[in-house]
Each structure stands twice: as structure tokens, then as C-alpha cells.
Amino acid sequence: MLNKTKDYITRNRLWPIVDVLIFVVITGGFHKLYWAFFSVGISQSGLNAIMEWLAAAVYSVSAWVDAHIFGMDIVLYPVNLIHFKANNTTIAINESCSGFKQMLQVLILFLLFPGPWKHKLWYIPAGMLAMFITNILRVVILSAVMIHWPQQWDFIHLWILRPFYYVVIFGLWVLWVERFGGMRKFIRADQ
Fold this sequence. Notes:
The chain is mainly alpha-helical.
């Protein structure tokens, strides 16, 4: 039966659909489990310290980029606040802004998705770094939004830049499938 299924999928060129379904199941399952775990109280798990550290790192790097690359006139406060003198507005970077969830999602996705372990060993950390850099870009863009279009901040934060994480994760996944993974390559290596 398994061989007939593989033959049917191969004959009808359905391996990309199988890969997408696996991606959806892993991603959907991750979201369900993460929010179930979060509702119990993530701070009780000891992960809160990691999230605080990541938030502080995002704050530091984003503030440096804001000030030194884009020349924004800012004041920094030790509780991860970036204050913009141009219009007297402030951005707070807390644990939910740390990018921890997205890094964990990349870790779980590529641990579970088929592909060679020799590539997973470097691709997973590279993907997590890509999430960190994406988060820096997100905060820097939100800084510019806060200065120039503060009334649009909520919309851009919630409906453009938050989903952008998932565009990047999907792009990392597509690159992985094209270069290293995917069920078709996994099935061939198994035979």
C-alpha cells in the first residue's frame, strides 16, 4: 500500500503538495502547542529569562541602527524603551517582541521536516539568526513609522510586520525544500 501511494504521488507529481501539507501540519501544530504552553504560564518555565535577554539584544541593536545608521534622535531607557525626540513618542521592546517564538518555530520546523542532518546542523542556527535579523529590521521599520506616521503604527505592527516573520519562515522553508529536503528526496534516500 505504501509503495502504491508513493507511486501515485510520483506519477501525478504531487510531492510539492505533500511537502506543503507537512509544512502546514508542523507549523499549525507548533502554534497550537506553543499557545497551549504559553497559556499555562511561560514565565514558570524558565524561558522568560531567554526572552528577556533576546528582547534586550533586539533593543540594543535596533537602537544602534536607529541612531548610527538612520541618524534618528533618540533617548534610550534601561527598560528597553526607545524614545524619539522628533515627535515625543516611544517604542517598548518587551519579551513578546523578542522573536523567541519565531526562532523556536524555525528550530521545530527544520528539526521535524525531512532533510539531511549534516545540513540541519548549520541551517537551523542560520534560520534562527535570520529571525533575529528580521526582528531587528522590524523594529527599525517601526521606529521610522513611529516618527513619520505614528497613527499607522498599530496597523503596520500588527498587519504588515508581524506577518512578515512568516513570509521569511516560508522563504527559508522553500529554500530548504529546493536545496536539501522535501519528501521526494527523503523517500529516495530511504530506498
